[in-house]
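Re-run with default settings, no changes from the original entry. Doing this only to confirm the output is reproducible before filing.
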Amino acid sequence: MLRALLKKHFLAFATPFTQGRGGKKRSKWAALGFAALMLYAFVAMGSLFWMTSSTLCTPLVEQGQAWLYFAFMGVVATAIGVVGGVFMAKSTLYEARDNDLLFSMPIPPWMILFVRMTGLYLFTLAFEACAWVPALVNYLLTVGFSLPVLLCGLVILLVLPLLAVAVCCLLGFAIAWLIARLPFKSLFATLLFLGFMVGYSLLMANVNAYLGALIANVGALGGVMETWLYPFFLLGRAGTGDALSLLGSVGIFVGVFALVYVLLSATYIRIVTMKKGEYRAKYKEKDTKSTSPQIAVLRKEFWRLLKSPAYLLNSSIGSMMMLIVAVMMGIFGDFFGVNADMVASVPELQKFIGLIVAVVVCFMAASNTISACSISLEGESLGLLRSMPVSEWAILKGKLYLHFLFTALPDMALGLAMGLVLRLEWYTIVGVVLTAVIASALFAAWGLLWNLKLPNLHWTNETAAVKQSFSVLIAMFGSWGITVLPLGVYFLVGAYLPAPLYLYLWLGVFAAAAVGLLVWLKKKGTEIFRGLTD
């Protein structure tokens, strides 16, 4: 039974690799392409931690504090694992669509929990590897190859996620329990996520200062690790090849995980099926006003987005970042350390700063994937959507409008804030704001195109449709590629065109591409959408 459950669970995770439109099997090349995109995303994340570990490794090793280097990177890796896995724990452990089905079968609750926690462990392991592997490699390159260090580092890599999984399970339960009792579930989840993003943005804006302070206060940090974070103190010593410390740290991490697992397995059914105290909306009689079919479709898409924390948080992260950065620029008067005086002091940068701002605006907009998963989220209810007395084109336009509105408005605010803070010329600011509008329309159509071609309609949890969809990855990475293309071409032809003129020329190219995609969606896209439910 355990083997069958594990197979079912991992087949669900592998659905984006193996199944295409209508449940048809993907080709090997499509599966390899999806895997390559996933690998690229993790390599890009790992490169950030490579730079962090490179900054810390040599100074700490030279001060004889190699254990502190590994302890600190262990804390960082655990934090990344918790952040990456907490909402997945909430959705896969406590809110999975097949929970009721599995509980109705003669399957022990501990077995269901074990299978779900195994998937969460592998997911967390991938996130933590992005921080721990670069740290280990940097250390081996700095001090020279050591087999004990390598073996201890690999054991730590396998054991370290257990603590993050335990924390994710507890936090996921707390969030699921609290959200179930609130009238505005997505709003609460979004506020939690926004709080994290604000903290993350402040951290990244001052990361060099923090790393410098860490190196300058090694003694104090070491005391904190040894006193208050003793498991990571042992982990740091184990990272340098100390076998006894490795046994102690493994015992602590495995023990914490086992304790949480035993507590959850004993109460898993009660937790998952708990409904008492859940918020219930009160019925209020009121007159309703008739509206146009297009407005009705847009309203339906709007509330679908707001009522799903996984959909809102993952597909509109670009909008959240735009608003956060715009507010931070208004408060601090710079863009992560870059201000108007700095731009004015570099004549070469001043020539094309407007184009760079436009690229930043487009890059933020490209991070939104609302349209790229909007069809997949319909799942097996897609036929019900088609039964509505509206045309296929009206349904597709509702999804396009939602993506455009959630992207264009914060993107315009960001472009305006950057233009004013960096004191760009008025015609450049207008070009940047227009870029925000046109890029939002282009990326909305681009994402919907790929979701029509590569929908994921067979999922047990909506997180799979939002995070593990081939169309989402292609739409996001493709949009990023479209974003940096103008900047790359400019360095080839920039000597012949002023940057503001070049910006407006690319606006025309983007507008033409957006119109072309919209025409394709109206003609060919509606036919594909009709075929999805036939």
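Confidence is low (pLDDT under 50) at residues 276-281. The longest helix spans residues 28-62.
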